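Notes taken during the Thursday session

The instructor put the following on the board and asked us to keep it in front of us for the whole hour. The protein is NADPH-dependent FMN reductase. We were told not to look anything up and to reason only from what is written here. First, the residues (190 in total):
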Amino acid sequence: MTTYKVGYFIGSLSEKSINRILSRALLRVAPPGLDFQEIPIKDLPLYNHDFDADYPPEGRALKEAIAAVDAVLFVTPEYNRSIPGALKNAIDWASRPWGTNSFTHKPSAVIGASPGKIGTAVAQQSLRSVLSFCNSPQMNAPEAYIQFTPGLFDEDGEVTDPTTQQFLSDFMADFKAFVERVLTVLPPQR
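Then, after some discussion, the predicted structure tokens were revealed:
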């Protein structure tokens, strides 16, 4: 069986983020054949075109981390009906300088949790638009907008609700199948 390396981004910088807890749950329920590593974004300076000629170490490390994986998973909150600034900043770094977009042909999926009933639906649509421009093939279904309620997950990402656990397991199985299909048609850009 082929094992795919998956880099995951957590859109929130908070160590206590509900999306960080969601990421732990996703790793717990993922099928065999997916090897995960978090791609950190908290130390990136704000993107500035002036850096394109000489990328700082943080920007190079980000691009190297993305190059080392076969696919990317975004686990993001919703801030003001959009994606968090730190996540957008990371995408800007990864997609520059012109002609060196790290997301080209990199299969991706988006999921997020919020206390609100619509989960992170609007942020996910915003993120999908950005990823589309970055030429990242996206798993468009199933969509996953998780309403985070107290007790749904424990701190270690153990899912306490069987229906939610099954939904997340199915989401991750679909993601693995999507990665396999995309990489069969579009070889990774390395």
